[in-house]
Amino acid sequence: MHRDESWLREQYLEKGLGVPTIAKMVRRSKKTVRHHMKKFGIPMRSLKESRRLRWERELKAARERGGKQWQDAEWLREQYIERELDANTIAAMVGCTGRAVRDCLKKFEIPTRSLSEAFQVMHKARRKWWQNAEWLERQYIERRFSQVAIAQAVGCHVTTVRHWLRRFGISQRPSRAGYSYPYPKEWTEELRESIRERDGYICALCGKPKGERKLCVHHVDRDKSNCDPANLISLCDPCHGAVHSIIFEIVERITKTKLWHDKGWLRKQYLERGLGTPTMAELAGCSQATLYDALKRFGIPTRTVGDAARLRWRRTS
Fold this sequence. Notes:
Layout: H1 5-14, H2 19-26, H3 30-40, H4 47-64, H5 73-82, H6 87-94, H7 98-107, H8 115-126, H9 133-142, H10 147-154, H11 158-167, H12 189-198, E1 215-219, E2 232-236, H13 237-243, H14 246-256, H15 263-272, H16 277-284, H17 288-297, H18 305-316
Antiparallel strand pairs: 1-2
């Protein structure tokens, strides 16, 4: 059957079955199925789309079973032990409370994780942000961060970032990835030298002279097309790299402004981007209680526990 193009298209594209499921049906390896799909020119789904389809199938199966899929010991063991999902995330998948899932874990004698083990699982999931296609595309394409900066931010090697960029089909910039945007004709060596001369050949951040470190010319508003001398400053190589890093941007925001006092920023992060209060509190450099009070003060509607767990599941899937 796996050699029949029409059957293979029907299973993969119309029914939305994954390669492992099709491989089990035809009793062949996943590599064999992928080989025939490539041979027939069947487009492969991205990891994000595959997880979304799996999420929809599980929700549909939960509705068909009367919404009580969490009472299936085998399914519950697979989600909690093998996929390492927490009780609240499982509850959001099947539309019940976290308490109901925990009661079933206890009923079926499924060993639950300790607090330290739960934190290890959370930490492990956080370290895999580079496997999130939407996040990776936002950092590399929209925010124009280099592969090195992304690797440093998430704690992985630059080759890992490069591998997932290729896997998600995200077009990569030339090897000199620090130069994000194409520079205009006005961006000449004479202009850069005039900026260094204007600044006295000294870094604007650390004050190191040109002789000790290489001096770069930085766009203050990060718009490469804006070559107005008022928008250009001299920075040494280490400070220039720090300015373009994700961590420096967060520290810069914390030291300059109190973000929880900005209604527009709160609304954008909480409602549009769907970030949770712990993440926003970390970005703004305040406690969760302070951030929650700011949301109430500005009249921004807060999410329920179920909605928050559902959003967290969608971001990780």
